[in-house]
What does this fold into?
Amino acid sequence: MTTTTTRFQSSVSGVRDDGAFVSTGRLVRAEWTKFRSVRRWILGVLAMAVLTVGMGLFIASGSGTDANTRPEEVTVGPGGARVHDVFQFTHRPLQGDGGITARVTSLKSADGREMAGWAKAGVIIKAGTKPGSTYAAVMVTPGHGVRLQSDFTNDVAGKSRAIPGWLRLVRAGTSVTGYESADGRTWRKVGTVTLPELPQRAEIGLFATSPGVFKVQREFGSTSVGQSTSVVAATFDGVDVQSRQQAASWNNTVVSPSRAGGDEFQGNDFQGTQSAGTFTLRGQGDIAPRPDGDDPVRLPFTGVMIGMIAAIALGVLFITAEYKRGMIRTSFAASPRRGRVLAAKAIVISAVTFATGLVATVILFFASQPVLRSGGFAPPAFPEPSLTEPRIMRAVVGTALFLALVAVFSLGVGTILRRSAGAIAGIITLLVLPTIIASALPISAATWMMRLTPAAGLSIQQTSRHYPQVESVCVPEDGCYYSEPWAGIGVLVAYTAVALGLAYWLLRRRDA
Amino acid sequence: MTRTLPIPTLLTRTLLTRTLYAEWTKLRTLPGSGWSFAGVVAVTVALSIAFTASVDAAHCPAPQGCHEDTTKLTLSGTWLGQAAVVVLAALVITNEHATRMIQTTLAATPRRAVVLFAKAVVVAGVVMAAAVLGVAGSLLTGRFFLEGNGFTAANGHPPLSLGSEPTLRAAFGTVLYLVLVGLLSLGAGALLRDTAGTITAVLTLFYIAPVAVQFVGDPHWRERLEKAAPSAGMAVQATRNLDRLPIGPWAGLGVLAAYAACALLAGGAAFIRRDP
Amino acid sequence: MNATIEVRGLRKRYGSTVAVDGLSFTVEPGQVTGFVGPNGAGKSSTMRMIMGMDRPDEGSALIGGRPYRTLRSPLCQVGALLDASAVHPGRRARDHLLWMAHSNGLPVRRVDEVIDLVGLRPVARRAAGGFSLGMRQRLGIAAALIGDPAVLMFDEPVNGLDPEGITWIRGLLRSLAAEGRAVLVSSHLMSELEGSADHLVVIGRGRVVADTSVQELLTAASSGRVMLRTGRRQEAMTVLANAGASVAANGPDTLTVSGLAAERIVALLNEGGVSFSGIAEHRASLEEAYMELTRDAVDFRGATGAAGGPGSADADGTAAGGAGGSASSSASAGREQR
It folds into this structure.
């Protein structure tokens, strides 16, 4: 009997090797099908979004501020930002171009208390005595040397750190140039600034002021940040105003948003006297941008602390569920290159959590605005935030990115441990606990804990502006353990990379 | 046809003691149990050490002006220990569902209520033992580190001692706290049956209020949260400024006990009614 | 206590699927009762209800006259192997049996006795997670026997066992029944029960199709059918049909005759002068009888009978799917469902 052997031909075509990129693409599709076909996981992603938004709105509704209760005391600078503009001003008018020269002979504490590093005294040209108006000043400070500052946010460092020291300010049109000198003869230019809003007739003169000194006290699990006032006294001599007009007389004004120095000021906190060419100014306050004490934009986004718990569970289960049911062997039978399976899983879980997270954070941003406004976070103290501002965009996108990274980190840890119980409990604790216990630890310990745990990624949420020329206190649990918002995400990325790397190495070594 | 039973059963034992014995054997013979037990003790003591080693009386305005609640600080490891307790207790029931072992269990002891009660007793006993070790370890190490960091009797911080009534209450209360956390997790596990779901849900329940308190500015809301959440039970650790607590030490533990009772009742009802 | 399982009017639905639809039967002591039905017929559901795992929607399942859930030391009354993989993979085999012994107040020596009985002594201190299917099956049987119960239930016990194991378990089942125990063994393959079962409860789509002894079933399945070999097929068919028999042609020279006894057929053929070369009474195999019974009760039938289709194993071809209406067995007690 003769038999003819027919060569077997699979009826299914398309089994080609298309290289790493295409094959990973196919795996991504496979993993996406795996993900979307488990109803619980879809519900989990929705839970992540709902918990984030719900918790965010709850936090927003439970927060408020009284910053706007006395709106007349809110000073807004030329750029629209909230500023401090309180100082002793000894001044006279200046029409058109001109300048002022003076020597600061001393800058001392006037109340016997510790003096702030950013206490300041010097020469200033300002649109008027209205708080918040445009200005330029060159000054001496006890902690930071000579500075040329203008319109609250600009700050240029000079060379000299010595007191006594000579200072000079020269106006030409809208540009103002500051000089410093040790002896009043050889002058060094500190810098030139442009003040577009400076009127023809400005006020020029001397000023002294000092911010308070911060005291942070942690007690009983709660943190109190106190700012004690600090009054400084500065003496000047050699005061000379270069002007084309004839000399006008000197006026003493307390520049302050509150009427006549306000209730919070003591009677002798401000003083301007002059005798025999020596001017003595006593003052407190500050001429500086006012850092946002609260970060109302960040507040609702902290709801992600609860929403991320769902992302953790999803990330872990996406791999441990396969181990539990032995499905992993089917997965590896379908694609023996295990690293690509892991990569495909990471791509799918991060894309799903990022996309859903982004929808949630955008919704949360818009939904929380009216809630925050009704809680007092409204202009003028809190300018209306816009999604197009980079710092807002960073918080909105960054929070979604945080969720995606947490999910991928969880995937990595889940792969390493292969069991859901320990992985989920461990990651939740690792990410949530630092925030909870930070307030009970000393500031430095809490800061380092927040910096080094994966929870550091939450620093991306801070939208407060920080200024080097303003001393500000931000406790770590408020999100500013990194002054650079992206730095924290870097820490989380590092954790994720290490987890994935270890997972990959173990996957290759281990039996499925 | 009737057969006589050739095996002498230990009929003197009641159904409950037999079931307890079986549940204890089950827990004891799982290789993971020892690790979980050690984990509860280790993480509790480790975090407590981290806390007590990081505080320094020098941070206070004056050595005598330190209002640090050293007992509470020393027992802060509970924050971490409770996560391990949640895992241990939840697995006692959810793992049986995962491996379908629950069928064998119910074949051996068909009374669901007795099975769940026996599991509750075993969980309570094991967690209590681990908690006693964890609390004792925390207090001993805390005593050592605190004294080294300037919290001395001269500064108004006598060494931690169970002889002082508030410290004794805090230590005893912490053990009870962890036991209640275990019972709550067991109840949740009986209700949800799934390991991952149970652990996620219970930890969310425990962490949601402390997280919210960090961010919610309104003091009334904060107080309400601290009173109503299961983490109110942590109030039992406070030994100073009790009048400033949102909820009293025992009342706080009572809140947690209410949660645990509800979880056990709901879980028990589901366990008895549902087919495994 | 009476070593019986009594199932009365049991009904259970899972969602929209009716798994068990009014099932009643009794498992008597001293014999092995086979519990047979195709996949999805409701065997496991019934056993779970007997074990008190699932609550019946209607009806009752009693062991020695009592519901399982009311038994105080159930392992001493019923031993069951429902799901051999229902062990914790991390626990050692001996420990698994140990906690079971504790739960029913059994002495620890019983643990070692059953370990020896099922031959797991060498691996008793190894984690059950590493066991093969056959080892797990043996562990499950050890667990069922630990209380030396009068009633035993085994759900598909030979699954995963090697031929030696199958022989062993058949012997075990027989000896357990010989000791006066009631033994219920489920299977979806009748052939597995051939030689071990005394009585059969056949179910399909949640209902009892047949509740009969093996002997009766075989007799019924083969009764009244005679195989006739003749070169003059047409004439033989005419003669026999006129006499009231139903005749089916199986091949060029083979006929199946039913409705007439063999002696009467011989007489008729001789009267009509029809020659024949052979005549024999048909003896059905258990599998064949089962196929007859469950033909309408199979839930999940393959689209094409590519491999192992119904009746393909039958050399005689008598049962080959509906060829000539010859398959009108008198044993079809369960036919009322269609």
User: Anything to note?
Assistant: Residues 73-289 of chain A form a domain with the Jelly Rolls fold (CATH 2.60.120). The mean pLDDT of chain A is 86. Residues 53 and 364 of chain A are 5 Å apart (CA to CA).
